[in-house]
Each structure stands twice: as structure tokens, then as C-alpha cells.
Write a structure and sequence with these properties.
45% of the residues lie in helices and 16% in strands. The protein is α+β, with helices and mostly antiparallel strands. The chain has one domain (2-131).
């Protein structure tokens, strides 16, 4: 499941733009999920940190930022319901039932969980649930 800040209408737009099943994407208009998970927010805590330019530089070094530039070609300025949500960072949480098996809190803009780590955590969680 994917939970993002924004309205249900924007969640549907996101799904269409990215060919994602609408049944797994949820909109968090009030920020309740992000607040409960204590994801970082605010200018100083998110954008103006050392990890922002480091994350962007890493993308440039890895693939010339081709993934980022391909996304930016389709990017639309979707504003969140509340202005302060524009400075909200997210994260990646993998659950096995009610248990958290992986947690990544985005340090800043562009500093996301390594995809390989997320896939591995999901694989382990799936295998553990299959054994029970």
C-alpha cells in the first residue's frame, strides 16, 4: 500500500500518471499517518540539510540523473491540502502484519530508502508470513 499526502483526486491522478493500481494508493489529507509515524517536516529539518545535495549528486553519479529527469518531464505542481505539508518528508515502512520489519525515514528531499533494501525486507516479511 502507498500512502501519500494530498487529496483523493490527486491520488487518482498519481495512479493514472504512473500506471499504479488505485486500490493500493491512499490519500492522507490531514497528515495523520505522517504525524503518527513521526516523519520529518519543516524547512530546516528537510530541505536545507547536507543529505539533499548528496542525494542529488548520488543520482547524477549513478545514472546521470536520467530517472529524475524523466520524472521531471511529467511533473505537475500538485499542491497538498495544507501549505505546511509541502515541507513534509516521507519514508518507507514495511510491515509483516502489525510488526514493523523495515523503517526508513527520509532524511531530506531526494534521500529515499534504497530500493534493494525495501525489496529484501518485503521478501523476508512475505517468507516469514508464509511459514506461519
Amino acid at each position: 500500500m502507498v500512502i501519500g499526502i494530498g487529496t483523493t483526486a490527486r491520488a487518482r491522478d498519481f495512479c493514472r500518471e504512473n500506471a499504479i493500481d488505485e486500490n493500493i494508493v491512499y490519500a492522507d489529507e490531514t497528515n495523520a499517518t505522517y504525524d503518527k509515524l513521526k516523519f520529518r517536516k519543516g524547512v530546516k529539518a528537510t530541505f536545507f540539510t547536507r543529505s539533499t545535495p548528496e542525494a542529488i549528486a548520488k543520482r547524477v553519479a549513478e545514472d546521470g540523473a536520467s530517472t529524475l529527469t524523466s520524472v521531471l518531464k511529467r511533473w505537475k505542481p500538485w499542491l497538498p491540502p495544507k501549505q505546511e505539508q509541502g515541507l513534509q518528508q516521507g519514508g518507507t515502512i514495511v510491515f509483516s502484519g502489525k510488526d514493523t520489519v523495515y523503517a526508513w525515514y527520509d532524511e531530506s528531499t531526494g534521500a529515499h530508502a534504497p530500493v534493494e533494501d525495501v525489496i529484501e525486507a518485503a521478501r523476508r516479511a512475505t517468507e516469514a508470513r508464509a511459514k506461519t
